[in-house]
């Protein structure tokens, strides 16, 4: 069994842990011990630095770097993936700004979680609040080489992005799922007039 070693940047920082015996991920918390400010960007892409006071306030539309007080010593041949927490995403609208964080084994700086507030309400993150979850993932060794032959069709799939699950029957778009079929009829054509009649002199 591999070990994921964790270095604490402050003595008050608590180590991450799994919540159940069969959890795939360990919880990652906001821990700002020893820090006085945090950084991020507003919805208008304006950089900011704000005082912390053991709390991070994420305004609507903000993208914020949340410190964890953890430096991961990831074993060679592995990486850590940072995922959003489903409860925060659904109930509060706090998601990851980068969808999924990828921490390489040669990264030995503090783990910062990039959060994005997609709600219309300010979200306050207190010290110790769980904001994300991490997963140790084994890497697959591979190399990238050029192919001079275009890839051939491997299955019955025909078409590019978005080509599966959607068919066109006449002028009607049909979305097919395993549970139901939703049919969306095309909009009625807009009838355009010829303008006002010309007045005779």
What does this structure look like?
The protein is mainly β and about 200 residues long. It has a domain at about 5-140: Deoxyuridine 5'-Triphosphate Nucleotidohydrolase, Chain A, CATH 2.70.40.10. It has one helix at about 85-90, and strands spanning about 5-10, 25-30, 35-40, 45-50, 55-60, 65, 70-75, 80-85, 95, 100-105, 110-115, 125, 130-140, 165-170, 170-175, 180-185. The strands form five sheets. It has a five-stranded antiparallel sheet with strand order 4-3-6-11-9. Strands 2-13-8-10 form a four-stranded antiparallel sheet. A three-stranded antiparallel sheet has the order 14-15-16, with no helix packed on it. β3 (about 35-40) and β4 form a beta hairpin. It starts with a strand and ends in a 17-residue tail after the last strand. The mean pLDDT is about 90.
**Overall outline:** extended
H-E string: EEEEEEEEHEEEEEEEE
The major beta sheet can be summarized as: 5 strands, antiparallel
Q: Biggest sheet, strands in spatial order?
A: 4-3-6-11-9
Low-confidence blocks of residues: none
Determine the structural class based on helices, strands and strand pairing.
Answer: mainly beta
CATH homologous superfamily of the domain at 5-138 - what is it? Deoxyuridine triphosphatase (dUTPase)
The total count of strands amounts to: 16
- Using the 3D structure, state the CATH architecture of the domain at 5-138: Distorted Sandwich
Percent of residues in β-strands: 35-45%
Mean pLDDT metric: 88
In the CATH scheme, the class of the domain at 5-138 would be: Mainly Beta
Distance between the termini: 96 Å
- Indicate the radius of gyration in whole angstroms: 25 Å
Look up the CATH topology of the domain at 5-138. Deoxyuridine 5'-Triphosphate Nucleotidohydrolase, Chain A
What is the number of helical segments per DSSP (H or I, 4+ residues)? 1
Helix content, binned percent: under 10%
């Amino acid at each position: 069994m591999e070990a994921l070693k964790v270095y604490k940047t402050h003595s008050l920082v608590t180590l991450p842990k799994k919540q159940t015996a069969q959890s795939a991920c360990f919880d990652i918390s906001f821990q700002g011990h020893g820090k006085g400010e945090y950084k991020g960007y507003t919805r208008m892409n304006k950089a900011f630095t704000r005082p912390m006071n053991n709390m991070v306030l994420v305004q609507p539309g903000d993208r914020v770097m949340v410190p964890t007080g953890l430096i991961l010593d990831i074993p060679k041949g592995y990486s850590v993936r940072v995922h959003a927490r489903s409860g925060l995403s659904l109930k509060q609208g706090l998601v990851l700004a980068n969808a999924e964080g990828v921490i390489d084994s040669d990264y030995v700086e503090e783990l910062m979680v990039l959060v994005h507030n997609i709600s219309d309400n300010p979200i306050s993150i207190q010290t110790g609040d769980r904001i994300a979850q991490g997963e140790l993932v084994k890497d697959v060794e591979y190399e990238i080489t050029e192919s001079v032959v275009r890839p051939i069709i491997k299955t019955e799939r025909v078409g590019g992005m978005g080509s599966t699950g959607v068919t066109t029957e006449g002028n009607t778009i049909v979305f097919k799922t395993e549970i139901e079929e939703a049919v969306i009829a095309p909009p009625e054509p807009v009838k355009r007039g010829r303008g006002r009649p010309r007045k005779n002199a």
